[in-house]
Amino acid sequence: MRVCLVTWGSRGDVEPMAALGARVCELGGEARLCAPPDFEELANRAGVPLFPMGRPIREFLHGERPATPADAPRTAANLIAMQFETVARAAEGCDVIVASGLMPAGTRSIAEKLGIRYVCAMFHPGSIPAPHQKPLARPGIPFPPGETDIDVLWDIDAQRVNALYREPLNAHRAAIGLPPVDNVRDHVFTPTPWLAAEPILAPWPGSPYFEVARTGAWILPDTRPLPDDLHAFLDAGTPPVYVGMGSVRAPADFARMTIEAVRAASHRVIVNRGWAGLAPIDDGDDCFGIDEVNHQALFPRVAAVVHHGGAGTTTMAARAGVPQVVVAQFADQPFWGARVAALGIGATHEGPTPVEGSLTAALMTALAPDTRTRAAAIAQQIRTDGTTVAAQKLSAMG
Fold this sequence. Notes:
Number of helices: 15
Strand content: 5-15%
Low-confidence stretches: none
Helix content: 40-55%
């Protein structure tokens, strides 16, 4: 089985695909990964060759002129062009393409042209049209004021996708002799998308429009040791609170307000600089700055995890049995924050931008003994076989 894995996004989009690629290889198959060039080290660690797609995503998100909603049409056209260029080359000789990340609108067309199978995988349920949920925010046509009809809202969501992707997609399809696509979103998703998310964290009640196949989250095993200086900090006192915002832009003054809130709760702090550029606010010996490290080794040793609510960080913290505080910014992050609160394994901050003192109540909830007990209990239910389930499903496709 030769699998081409395609995604465009930040680490939360790329690492699960690398995890599936690693598992496919362990089971005797071959995998290739099309993703932004930022993740060459990650691909090497997974043992999957990287076909770089486009310019660095970090530059796109955090450059001197980061992308805005007004750039969405140009971004969509560029994304489709990247897919037709890179995926067409990487997928030669493959049996199946698995696509995820920001709307892989061109990827199914490549599979169609090559005559190979195609799977669309989601790492959160919020993008899948269903009567129990409203669409996530996208640039484009606004929802009518006061509109509550779910079918109407999902129809508008499809129109938004078409407005961004249909014209450039159909131009590329015509160039390779394929007929035009009318509904880009449903074409990309297919009638049977995969949901690669932890079932406890992301329950799926079903949808009359799609036959969703669940696999569980795709987790890349990480055996990297923690740095010696981080080990020394952990060993020097009580468990600290971890603070990180992953790949997103942090709200103004986020590091200071969070560190002060953690100190007010009488805890030490680990600050992950990340792409958000967080940093300790002084040289106090109760605060330690780190770069990217093994969360699977670190999280079991902290008192709580304060983060942006990405699917990967939420799942890793839940798996470690550590309470969480989610400061959601956009996209699927409010969903994960709501799930953390609903499960009683932490709290979610009200709104994306903390103000003085606003983190205190959420942090106190997370640090309460009952929350830690609940987080430890939920950790026992977290599945770790998602990549195995997915790899076996791919193998069964023949």
